[in-house]
User: Fold this.
Amino acid sequence: MTLLDKDGVRLTVDDVIATVTLAGPAKRNAQSPALWRALAEAGSLLPGDVRIVVLRGEGKSFSAGLDRQAFTPEGFDGEPSFIDMARGSDSELDATIAEYQEAFTWWRRTDLVSIAAVQGHAIGAGFQLALACDLRVCADDAQFAMRETSLGLVPDLTGTHPLVALVGYARALEICATGRFVHADEAERIGLANLVVPAADLDGAVADLAGALAAAPRDAVIETKALLMGAAARTYDEQRAAERAAQARRLRDLAGLGE
Assistant:
């Protein structure tokens, strides 16, 4: 069932698994503000029984990043150019970037598990979109790069937090400041990729993972994800207490004593 198909984004749902497809292969799924709004809309359209969201890109690349038209004086039709944005007030600029970030935030909702299926290039905004997901399954030709610094910018589409969480501060700084490519084998070694498979096997590997995740009891997965997401911000004793509280809720639900 197709729920959305516009501005380079297609959302389909099959039972409890949704697939969000970047559907602009001619431009290697380059991103624009219109695409970001469509991605945010896709998140709002998910039926309540969806448990798994797969993010994929059509064609040879997952996403080559921000469409270079953004760097031209005219920018995109109907959108503020970067020059126009720079001329705005601090509050206006903050609000514009915050709107763009909405495309990248909903993938980590605790009631969902999101999987990025990455092949070819995932550059800049494409890298950050892959980082927005909980899990990343990569083809052996995948290449990640954070090129914003080389353009005189910073990564601002929510990618810095998960990158540091996955690979540590020092490696994240080196990756971002140099803008170098991280190839699939390194991505798996340093924790960026959960799994690397031959390109021909990418869809099958993602489907197998999605099926395994969907087979687990939903409430247990939701509670576990919430525990793990909050672990870094808690002390050891706080995490122990959070585990106890979550387990108490699960036991009461299983016993039919939940609220």
